[in-house]
Write a structure and sequence with these properties.
By secondary structure, the chain is an alpha+beta fold. The chain has a domain of 101 residues: Beta-Lactamase, CATH 3.30.450. It contains six helices and five strands, in the order ββαααβββααα. It has a five-stranded antiparallel β-sheet with strand order 2-1-5-4-3. The protein is globular and about 40 Å long. The N and C termini lie far apart (32 Å).
Length: 170
């Protein structure tokens, strides 16, 4: 479902000591959101709970980043990455996100916990430039090949590093 929110150029940011915490079920529906997330995203708790976490997805984010995220957490591994989110009013904010699978008593993935903190400005600058290049590749490749095209740009930028090594070096 496409968002009806139009992005603006108004930037919000986390405080230096703030942490955003959300929990989702295995399909990405929000089951918990801390007060910092609710305030920054601009949605009420009622609007957020039960909604897909992509309710805050900014159109500047390449689809290939989210494919990598879901592939990583779907195999039970932790994902760390820079994400540009969009609030209900169209403003945006950058985070360094760590998404970890939550397991049930049978060790199956039952959901995910995401903890986000304020990113370093230099890292945001680097991630933003890379994401713009990835988005351009995705758009020029067309819908069917978009994710592969964005992923190819990312692999080139990683220059043989793992994704986590690459992200943490930004």
């Amino acid at each position: 479902m496409k968002s009806s929110v139009a992005p603006s150029n108004i930037e919000r940011s986390l405080g230096d000591d703030d942490f955003i915490v959300t929990k989702t079920d295995a399909k990405g529906r929000i089951t918990y959101a801390n007060r910092i997330f609710i305030a920054l995203a601009g949605y009420s708790e009622t609007e957020l709970l039960g909604s897909q976490h992509n309710i805050i997805r900014h159109p500047d984010m390449p689809r290939s980043v989210f494919k990598l995220l879901w592939e990583t957490i779907g195999t039970g591994q932790e994902f760390i990455g820079y994400v540009k989110n969009m609030a209900k009013d169209g403003s945006f904010y950058w985070v360094l996100a760590t998404v970890t699978p939550d397991r049930d008593a049978q060790r199956a993935i039952a959901g995910y916990t995401s903890v986000r903190r304020k990113p370093r400005p230099e890292a945001v600058k680097a991630a933003s430039a890379l994401y713009q290049t990835m988005l351009a590749a995705e758009r020029s490749a067309g819908t069917r090949d978009a994710i592969d095209a964005g992923a190819a740009v990312l692999r080139t930028a990683m220059n043989g590093k793992s994704y986590e090594q690459f992200v943490l070096a930004l």
